[in-house]
Amino acid sequence: MALTDSIPNNVDLGSDKKLLRALEKWQPNFLAWWKEMGPESFQEDEIYLRTAVSVDPQGWAHYDYVRMPEYRWGIFLVPQEEGRKVGFGDMENESAWQEVPGELRGVLRRLIVTQADTEPASVEQQRQLGKTAPSLYDLRSLFQVNVEEGRHLWAMVHLLHKYFGKDGRDEAEALLERRSGDPDKPRLLNTFNEKTEEWLSFFCFTMFTDRDGKFQLAALSESGFDPLARATKFMLTEESYHLFTGETGIERIIQRTVELMKKDPNEDARDQGGIDLPTIQKWINFWFSSSLDLFGSEVSSNAAEYFASGLKGRYREREKYTDHKALDQYYEIEMPVGTQIVKKTVPLRNAMNEILRDEYIADCERVLRRWNYVIQKAGIRYQLRFPDRKFNRKVGIYANHWFTPEGQLISQEEWQARQGDWLPTPADREYVRSLMVPCYERGKIANWIAPPRQGVNGKPFDWEYVRFHRKSTVFV
Ligand code: BYC
Ligand code: FE
Ligand code: FE
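# fe (iii) ion complex -> structure
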């Protein structure tokens, strides 16, 4: 099969022979990577998956049973907007770029590579999870997310191959060579080197880390480099299912926990094989704080440069703001100075990472309210919360300082003594791991999570979302 047939696309791949050759060379390496680092043990099974087949908002996806290595990873850009202009920064109102402006080549490549690197990283992080899926529905969700992260990699590799020549091709190879968590060749951003070896972490990851994806992609979809804007805009369409998986996954765990608490009020949820609320809180503390790191430093000349040069805008830059230059404006940031926190103002452009982080936190809080409503409705007096943004940071101005979840500056000694109250301990991890036994029976679900309210694509929960091939039914 010619590559133009095996790769659904709306970028006229067939007419660009050079690009086609580059992608044809890369494809077998991608597949080799997928087999080595993609979902372990389920490559022969038929999964009821959604495949992007166009950018038509009404009918962009097609659902059918597919073996993952045969998934049609496509390349789609949303349609070009006639006369589109650079939307912000020093070059505001110039025509948007259809080619890479020479002076921006290095920074633009770096942005695209950073975005691209997260996609295969997440697949690597999640590769063992199929073996302990709580239901067929969840098993399918995991693989849906995995193949779409694979497609996001294709989308970014297309840009590297098409616009960056030999450098781009080298970067595309390197994307298949780095490995999540490998000390010698780690993935670029730290959250993507963390372990997600049980499903509570998977749902936290899709809630918090994929949500960084939502905001970074949205900022890139404002880009003056038009192909990047169009590629990321379409990626956002798929992203909403990833976020849905995380939001509802945690919500279903909470639902089950409060059911268990009510069933036997004398017993802790843990004694009944559930995940108690304080444990969920610790996982939230970890993944929320780690994902905040992904926005970069609070004060960043890189971010100022991305904005000034029209490469990366604010969230909904064109819709939400009237002034797109962001000059002569300031932003207040809490800085740790010695043993104190002092408010300092910085030029707005240098605070672009923090401004995107603000949007992200507000979006997370919307979901938190829904989770807490589940607890409240059950008549239980407990509220989950997010730690302060200064808590447990490894990147930015709060790194190497120690804060409580309430945002109080403490000493390193106090942090050491108390971090086990706030973050998962080895014993907590061991407990959560011990609950992870697979449940592959149609219509059944593991004890620690409630079933979803609905199935996928109008199907019921007890639909056969995965048809096991004999060779890989060892887990059933
Ligand atoms: N870990 O000025 P600073 C997704 C580095 S998720 C390690 O603070 P900047 C997905 C930084 O590179 C979305 N290093 O940062 C989700 C710089 O290094 P150099 C991914 C970090 O550049 C789930 C130094 O620290 N997309 O799609 O303003 C599943 C100081 O730089 C980290 C993007 O990230 C970190 N967390 O901002 C699948 C969009 N943070 O220059 C997929 C593209 C910073 O000193 N990337 N550093 O060597 C960007 O826009 C920017 O690179 C960042 C960093 C926002 C990440
Ligand atoms: Fe993605
Ligand atoms: Fe995603």
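# post-check
The chain has one domain: 3-475.
Residues 111, 114-115, 118-119, 122, 149, 189-190, 209-210, 212-213, 216, 293-297, 300, 302-303, 312, 353, 395 surround benzoyl coenzyme A (ligand 1) (CB under 6 Å).
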